[in-house]
Design brief:
- With about 80 residues, this protein is of the alpha+beta class.
- It has a domain of about 35 residues: YefM-like fold, CATH 3.40.1620.
- It is built from three helices and three strands.
């Protein structure tokens, strides 16, 4: 890893960015104190979107009780 000064970084930023794109890393120092790193960004891997109708996990089966009519008490709770 190469250490450069803030002045070098400002003056030759385009050159350093081209090197970073190739995988090189730089430490930017103010005087003798390292203050930052110039490193390549790892590209985000896009996950393919599932197609409509694709099942992503285990299929879910609704219990028969899910389709049963509501009781009178349940209807009252819903204000129906």
């Amino acid at each position: 890893m190469t250490t450069i000064t803030t002045h070098e970084a400002k003056t030759h930023l385009s050159r350093y960015l081209a090197e970073v794109e190739k995988g090189k890393e730089f430490v930017i120092a103010r005087g003798k104190t390292a203050v930052a790193m110039l490193v390549p960004i790892k590209p985000e891997v896009e996950k393919p979107r599932p197609k409509v109708g694709d099942i992503k996990g285990e299929p879910f089966e609704f219990p028969d009780s899910a389709f049963a009519p509501l009781t009178d008490e349940e209807l009252k709770e819903w204000g129906l």
